[in-house]
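Sequence, please.
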């Protein structure tokens, strides 16, 4: 019998929490959440997932992607933390400037931002291809900048600067300051993990070994 990991157990706990939620109220808070047969569907970085309305299980809807525990927890925690007052503000900030994220700032820089820069160093064309494949909108900032919807309510700006003989490559991710009204600050880390891993996958590049892994 397969032993459940801590992430499997956490997903099970959140699945049970979902089953106690008012689904109609949840759809009112998150208009991007759509009823389709036995599922409520939602897109995460352009990939569609279904949450079974009777079991709470999350599965991929079409395509050849999978629903990792990290993806599942991002969806469940969005459901669990979204405020009825949450609203996009068009005020873009770095991760550490979001409400309640300071305890995770060092891990975010070391496990997300720095690996992002190293993964795409010398591969700016592949980064552009991956950004566009994820439905990104090009931005007039940095050497290669795109805005991509993690969820429709939580857009992310990926910014990349190619290095030269004097400076190493640089990267950053910006979030609307409302992001932590929709989801817990720690979940922003796992959202970024999914986005970075998906960019590398689409680009056909190995993710830098220091990047935080999906579970």
């Amino acid at each position: 019998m397969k032993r459940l990991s801590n992430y499997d157990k956490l997903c099970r706990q959140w699945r049970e929490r979902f089953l106690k939620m008012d689904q109609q109220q949840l759809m009112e808070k998150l208009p991007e959440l759509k009823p389709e047969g036995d599922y409520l569907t939602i897109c995460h970085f352009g990939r569609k997932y279904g949450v079974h309305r009777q079991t709470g299980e999350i599965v991929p809807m079409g395509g050849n992607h999978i629903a990792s525990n990290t993806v599942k927890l991002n969806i469940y925690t969005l459901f669990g933390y979204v405020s009825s007052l949450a609203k996009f503000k068009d005020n873009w900030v770095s991760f550490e400037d979001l409400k309640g994220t300071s305890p995770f700032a060092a891990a975010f820089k070391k496990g997300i931002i720095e690996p992002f820069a190293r993964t795409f160093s010398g591969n700016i064309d592949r980064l552009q291809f991956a950004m566009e494949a994820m439905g990104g909108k090009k931005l007039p900032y940095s050497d290669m900048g795109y805005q991509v919807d993690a969820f429709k309510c939580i857009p992310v700006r990926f910014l990349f600067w190619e290095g030269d003989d004097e400076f190493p490559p640089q990267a950053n991710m910006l979030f609307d300051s409302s992001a932590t009204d929709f989801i817990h600050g720690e979940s922003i880390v796992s959202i970024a993990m999914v986005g970075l891993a998906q960019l590398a996958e689409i680009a056909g590049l190995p993710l830098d070994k220091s990047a935080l892994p999906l579970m």
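Residues 6-81 form one domain.
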